[in-house]
Amino acid sequence: MSERVQTAETLPATRRMTVAQAIVAWLANQFIETDGKVQRVCGGGFGIFGHGNAPSLGEALYEARAELPLYRGQNEQSMGFAAAAYAKAQLRRRFMFCTASAGPGTANLLTAAALAHANRLPILMLCGDNFATRLPDPVLQQLEHFGNPTLGVTDAFKAVCRYWDRITHPAQILNSLPAALATMLDPADCGPAFIALPQDLQGWAWDFPEAFFVPQIHRIRRAAPDPLELADAAALLASAKRPMIIAGGGVQYSQAVAELTAFAKAHRIPVVETIAGRANLLWDDPLNIGPLGVTGSDSANAIAERADVILAVGTRLQDFTTGSWSAFDNGARIISLNAARHDAAKHRSLPLVCDAKTGLVGLSQALAGYRAPAEWLALAQGKRAIWNAYVAGNTGPRNGLPSYAQAIGAVNDRCAPDDRVVTAAGGLPAEVTANWRSLGIGTVDVEFGFSCMGYEIAGGWGARIAQAETQPNAETVVFVGDGSYLLMNSDIYSSVLSGHKLIVVVLDNGGFAVINKLQKNTGNASFNTLFSDCPTIAAPFAVDFAAHARAMGAITQEVENMQDFGAAFDRARAADRTAVIVMRVDPHDGWTDQGHTWWEVGLPEVSSRPTVDAAREAQATGRTRQRQGL
């Protein structure tokens, strides 16, 4: 790359290009240095062309297809999911762009943008918009607002993006593109960036400064802790008799796993994991006490309710982590080490706003000589041993239809340390979080920041594209329920077309069984969740998922029991392309029934059902443990 670098003195003054050509050329010349390795910060993109982006942006992307490979998506929403999963697998150091046409193509990206925003993930959306001149208005797929002609579909993205702009003059990209990239690479502000590109403006030519296209190397900022904040955090932690560390996804994004492990070991502090922080530690690490919260473990939740000082590292403290803020003693003090000020200041936390790696090193130095009482760690480890025995039984043999946990355990037994597991929404995030034994650091992607159905297969595809760049021999395993499969499945076809193999495990429980469980747990009737309880269904019909996936080019197997499932998974590992395994599981029994904290959901204050009234009273009792103050 160094051979391409030119000095300002040798550069021509300007280069006449279209706006689309300039955007693509600039993207192709942005690089990132990570661990001494320099590569393009943009790994390529996902695109579906229409009249709003094909003629100009499409032409520019064709010319740059070697530098910025464009993957053809089947649905704009799933393209966004794939881009988010790619960014997560790349630890937010690289991203993919998504391009969609004006109107519904762009609108389809809204959910994916919200997912990326909730999960603090960088994706770049380059989307078509109405004509800048407005001469042909109203045009196909344009939404007209009678009192505001500037308002359109693209404005909807302002609520779900960290950076938003609409380009109305070619010169504006000189500021907008660097600002968007700076946002996506900032550990504190990281999230999706959206740039609206009017259809006519994409093709407008302008004399762009040649200096704009000089290759540039970026690095991820590591913010050092403020000395006073660090001193306060060290003093509080040094006073702890029962300290605990909550390890979130930010630990992985900071590449601070080694520092976290060293910190916990040096100061003898037990570690629990959030959903996003799963696989910060290996499952058998003596300091790993298990996953925390609503979908957690009895072991982690038992020490959480006893802890007097909690060091939360790289977590936004979502309600599934905190048990809607009931998981901790009301008198417990929280130190929140986070790159984002917004997350570091939650719930009366003592903030330590900094990078996780530098912050943990600095805090450890300030705590020199401090070690938590040995009996506290022994108590935590004893709780974890009990939980491990529960998981072994939960994933083991049982009568009747197989369970989610059994399928998870069977896959776990057959996975290698580098294999990546992906799931989202429904009952599988809880079951994977509680039952999965992490074999490799950073190998678990449970999308529960936005709990978005449809992420599973699309996210698996995006993760596999990232994984293929560094670990081509590893597998990407997707767990998906029948409900999410029916919602979004077409990236099975995408994975086959692009040669990015997935192993997709489809677990069919006859509808949205986890919401059916929620209905029953809150005293409601089973209604419109399982296919069997939908009054508008004339006659239930079983979908042939194996035949459906086979029609998209996958190798498929349908099995009825766990013995056949294990053998089917072994065959899927040996397959040369995407393989799909389908198995019916029990919609009612076999759920993980331990490890859950209280969780607040909205319940009706007036109901004709006594069971709903009883559930509301039980929730009111649970609310008495809820930590007050935001």
Task: Offer a few descriptive terms.
630 residues; alpha/beta; Rossmann fold; 3 domains; six-stranded parallel beta sheet
What does this structure look like?
The chain is of the alpha/beta class. It folds into 3 domains: 2-218, 3-Layer(aba) Sandwich (Rossmann fold); 227-387, TPP-binding domain (Rossmann fold), CATH 3.40.50.1220; 395-584, Thiamin diphosphate (ThDP)-binding fold, Pyr/PP domains (Rossmann fold, 3-Layer(aba) Sandwich). It has 23 helices and 23 strands. The protein has a 6-stranded parallel sheet, with helices on both faces. A 6-stranded parallel sheet has the order 14-13-12-15-16-17, with helices on both faces. Strand 4 (42-47), helix 2 (54-63) and strand 5 form a beta-alpha-beta unit. Helix 1 (19-28) packs parallel to helix 2 (54-63), helix 9 (257-267) packs parallel to helix 13 (356-366) and helix 15 crosses helix 22 (562-574). The longest helix is centred in the middle third of the chain and has 21 residues, at 374-394. The chain is globular and about 70 Å long. The protein starts with 13 loop residues before the first strand and ends in a 7-residue tail after the last helix. The mean pLDDT is 96.
